[in-house]
Amino acid sequence: MPAIITLTRHIIEEQRKHPHATGEFTDLMNDVAFAAKLISYHTNKAGLMGVLGEAGTTNVQGEKVKNLDVFAHETMFKALDHGGHLCVMASEEEENAMEIPEQFPVGKYVILYDPLDGSSNIDANVSVGTIFSIYRRVSPDGRPGTLEDLLQPGHRQICAGYVVYGSSTMLVYTTGNGVHGFTLDPSYGEFVLSHPNIKTPKKGKIYSVNESNFDYWDQPLKNYISYVKQIDEASGRPLNSRYIGSMVSDFHRNLLYGGVYLYPANKQAPNGKLRLGYEANPLAFIVEQAGGRASDGKTRILDIKPKELHQRTPLFIGSETDVKMIEEFITGKKQQ
């Protein structure tokens, strides 16, 4: 029987390749995995446990908060606040940085997370997910973390990952040494390696975008969408339109099958809508490690220096050839 490689075993085996590793990162990832298991359980049981629906509040983004949003946010914080590995945290659901409670020690890592991406789809039983991003602190050790620790460019990430809560629960992560996927086996409650060394196709057959915003887009992007719909067997067109509306789910499918996810700026959201720190950066790190590309249309996502905690950005992410094509349309290098 082939060896069963759990998430913990995989991280430990990677840790052994680094002679100065202390095991702290392994413990931190175990805490993240534990939180994911709790969120997975409650997400799968949501309809039976009476936690569907809205909480009656809005978050810092002005979006209606779902009951499971609140649960996922609190679960992530409580699973990570006491281990002594983090100096500060940030959540898409909180306006300000979240300090480690005074009674707990602080560590050398920083985490930003979107506790429940796609939560507007929860009541319709559509797959949702958690996204997380980990950095080493840049402020002095032994003290509470600062905003500076959280506002680092994406290329400084030491780990990024996401969890999809769907027909099965799957955790995908990278530490800069390839992308690996683990499926939660409910029979013994462990994430087991199911998708080692994920590589996304250089060119895909799928584009994912909310086309109801078409009239709000700039003309170059309209030209691109019209282009990918045209019939041309030589260039593999038309592309197939697949849009779930839950970013983690759309990204995960495109990562495995090849394709591009678009969330452009528009007249209503001139700076884009997705959050750089909680969504764009971690998924950009993952897609690049899988051989793909992530851009705001002109600049590599991982090179953008954040100026504020909830900074927004346009995002084009997925197969390298497809993202480059979008960049060529936006910069005027290619015409329809």
Detail the topology: elements first, then pairings.
Layout lengths: L6 H9 L8 H21 L1 H4 L4 E5 L5 E3 H14 L5 E6 L6 E2 L9 E9 L10 E9 L10 H4 L8 E7 L3 E6 L4 E7 L4 E6 L10 E3 L10 H11 L10 E2 L5 H11 L2 E4 L10 E2 H14 L3 E3 L16 E2 L1 E4 L1 H12 L5
Parallel strand pairs: 3-5, 11-12, 11-13
Antiparallel strand pairs: 1-2, 3-4, 5-6, 6-7, 7-8, 8-9, 9-10, 13-17, 14-16, 15-17
Helix pairs in contact: 1-2, 2-4, 6-9
The structural domain count equals: 2
Kindly report how far apart the N and C termini lie.
54 Å
Q: Which geometry do the CA atoms define?
A: globular
CATH topology of the largest domain: Fructose-1,6-Bisphosphatase, Chain A, domain 1
Main sheet record:
8 strands, mixed
Biggest sheet: strand arrangement: 4-3-5-6-7-8-9-10
Tally of helical segments: 9
What is the averaged pLDDT score? 92
The CATH class of the largest domain is identified as: Alpha Beta
The percent range for helix content is 25-40%
CATH architecture of the largest domain: 2-Layer Sandwich
* Contiguous runs where pLDDT drops below 50 for at least 5 residues: none
Structural class: alpha+beta
SSE series: HHHEEHEEEEHEEEEEHEHEEHEEEH
User: What is the subunit arrangement here?
Assistant: single chain
For the secondary structure, the number of strands is 17
Strand proportion: 15-25%
Classified in CATH, the superfamily of the largest domain is Fructose-1,6-Bisphosphatase, subunit A, domain 1
Computed Rg: 20 Å
